[in-house]
Amino acid sequence: MTALSAADWQAVEPLLDAALALPPADRPTFLDTLPPEHQRWRATLERLLQAELAAADAGFLSQPASLAGGTTGPEGGGNPPWQTGQQVGPWVLMDELGRGGMASVWRARPHSGDFQREVALKLPHSPAPGWLERLKRERDLLARLQHAGIARLYDAGVDAQGLPWLAMECVAGRDILGWCEARHASVPERVALLLQVADALQYAHSRLVLHRDIKPANVMVQDDGAVRLLDFGIARSLAAETDATALTQLGQRPMTPEYASPEQVRGEEPGIASDVYAFGVLAYRLLSGASPYAAAAPASRHALERAVLEAEPPAPSTATRDAATRKALRGDLDAIVRKALAKEPARRYATMDALAADLRRHLAGEAVLARPPSWRYRAGRVIARHRWAVGASTLAVLALVGTTGWALRAASDARQEARRSGAMVEFLTGLFNPLREAQPDTRHRDVPARQLIEDGARRVLGSLQDEPLAREQLLVDLGTLTQQLGLPELSRQLAEERVHQAERLHGTRSRAYADALLGQRDLWESAGRYADGLKAATEALAIYQALGETDPQRLALAHLTLGGFSARMHAPEAADIEHLTTAARLLQPLPGPNLLGTVYEQLLVAHLGRGEMEAAYQAGMQGVQANRAQRGADDWKTAASEDQVGQVALFTQRPAEAGTLIRHGLQVLRKAMGPDVVILARGEANLALLAMAAGQVDEARAHVAEARRITTLPANQAMAAFALTVEATALDVAQQSGDWDTLHRGCERWGRDVQAPQPALRLRLQQACAADAVHRGDLDRARALLDQARGVAQKFFAQVPARHAAIALREGEWLAAQGRRDEAAAQWRQVLRLDDPSIVTPRAQAFAQLRAAQALTADDLASAERLRAQLQRAGGSTHWTTPLGLLGTP
């Protein structure tokens, strides 16, 4: 295949990305429907797609690249296929950072553009069995992780020869051991670095990702002391029910023996406790300068694994030769590290957060939970912290009498934290052993994460009343997880209880109360409760401003909610756009993941309300790009934004792109959240509109049926906005296809008064039911519905003529039913001559009505010809069979 130039690749890459997002069976149709200006790339795209399928069939990336050692190319000899200056996709290779037998890591930069960011590019030498699944897993897991302490995934794609690549943050620095040795770092400085690692791991665990290979080589420290956690090549998702990875298929155990937990050595499935253990080994090495299994490591792998299973490591303080270090480690740090290295997972810290909290207590001179909670120890820590403020006589008393009220009060902070941590551990333990049996039933130890989270949510609603701080944190975390897992009713209950808890604990003028109010935003949106959300957001922003809040994420959420909900309740105003642009401005500098994609989605809605179709599309695509950059292409938030902008792509006469975006979005959502999550209903409704435009009536009805199935599930019945969107689409499909019985059954529930939370949705329902009333000869009811619709259009969309088009169509039908043909023709002519790409079908329907009434003029014919030409340029009969059929032949 002839090499592509940089300019050629810029043209081909977006088309290749769109094709790769489709199932292989849909790709020929995509190629068949390429616009004329892109047909020149068809043969190139076919070759690239064939190469991608061949790579997938052969397997790709069966083992990770090594950044140290390994100088041979594929199959143990020869030069690697990558060279300095070579272009790979959008990147130019600069220099090789490391090479293994099957892959290389290169420093690279973009081949064009003003923004020249260097990346670490992971490249295979050639397709090989097992590599593809590893690369996909690493890409998918990294896409979830956007944290200052984790090397970021910037992009992923396929090069011109069909070989995949990963572009990651290029971290300049040294591994954590080398960095500390070069600077002769003190024990507190080393503990501070460990805290950065712990925070990064806790974040990964909160996103249901295990690292499974924590060791010094995978922890880089930059010159400024900032830590970056690297290499998630053998990481695993906690949410997966199975882990049929390439390593497992190859008969390997994915681990570094010296840092492997006992359960990993035994071949058991690792969990969070295994990462805690590996962190303990890292801490031991970093603090003492020796391995906890120093005696066994040089002997053999078998001896090392036996030591991991059976030998109790000596205290870190006894492993160091430096007297000052020995003194610094003795006591708290010995206890913390040994707790992390406990052979039994249940005896280790339950989470990285709990371990990090003990390290912070040590640095602050407070009592650590790893040590026995005796009064003498706790009092000693209090005295050490307040050495210069406590008189000699008081010291003597405290040394002799440990049960004084003063001593107990001084230790209250430590006890409160201990109770909170204990309550969290007790809660989590109860999920696995609810009956507190001495020998818990382990037959169901592989319960899927979704069920555990659901059980945990139900449990926290009725428990932990005597531990409010632990309960408060669980309400926040479980509220987010239940929402993401498609459990809306549980999420609503948790969010409302969080508000009540914040009011009881902190009061209604507190930051926590404002946070809790805004924590209901997504629930308000899905239920169509815009007035409630607007009121609460106004209150929350006022609280933040009164407290002098500077956190950009808090302020952005308040502005997002104000602007987004206000734009849903009336004609979007400049103030609504300003709220949303303020939110975007606050979030853009942040590394993410954050709500930037959601802000752009709300800007899309606001621009739609103003009739600014192209601005709506551009805002939507900015949202998709923000979500892809922050969360990855296969995240549910990215998928939801693709689905939403897909509908706008149809309205702006981009039907092929609309289909690609919507279908990919639905595929990801089903994979991430299951087949019944309510947001899928919106995507199915969008596919119904797409199918209807293409004249595929049966397919449109099937999509409507699936959308209705989802919205009528018991768990989704509270989501009124989704249900009404599906209902409006069902009525549109019935009206456009002439299915008058179905249209009438759908409109019976409304009578003469149609209500919906969104004005645009109300208009769709009103005009469809007006068509039903006219068809059945109920002109009084039709008149009432049209008057309602006119009122909504004038109030909310006075400056958006396209929003009046469907009403004018129905008005014409009502006039024609009364024999007022000239007035009816005037209404239809008004619709036909609206040059707006979002109302293709109403304009074509207006032309058909004029033709049936024999009222066409030369100007009408010219307008129809312009519309026909637009549709031919935008995909022709492949995508626009219904409106082209109404327009007829020239």
From TrEMBL:
Keyword DNA damage: no
UniProt feature, compositional bias: Gly residues: 70-79
Keywords carried by this UniProt record: ATP-binding, Kinase, Nucleotide-binding, Transferase
UniProt binding sites for ATP: K122
Gene3D superfamilies for the chain: Phosphorylase Kinase, domain 1 (3.30.200.20), Tetratricopeptide repeat domain (1.25.40.10), Transferase(Phosphotransferase) domain 1 (1.10.510.10)
PROSITE patterns per record: PROTEIN_KINASE_ATP, PROTEIN_KINASE_DOM, PROTEIN_KINASE_ST
Chain spans, region Disordered: 64-84
SMART domains: S_TKc
Domain Protein kinase: start-end pairs: 91-363
Stored InterPro entries: Kinase-like_dom_sf, Prot_kinase_dom, Protein_kinase_ATP_BS, Ser/Thr_kinase_AS, TPR-like_helical_dom_sf
Any Pfam family: Pkinase
Keyword ATP-binding among UniProt keywords: yes
GO MF annotation, one: kinase activity
PANTHER family: MITOGEN-ACTIVATED PROTEIN KINASE KINASE KINASE 20-RELATED (PTHR43289), SERINE_THREONINE-PROTEIN KINASE YBDM-RELATED (PTHR43289:SF34)
The name this protein goes by in its record: Protein kinase
Biological source species: Pelomonas baiyunensis
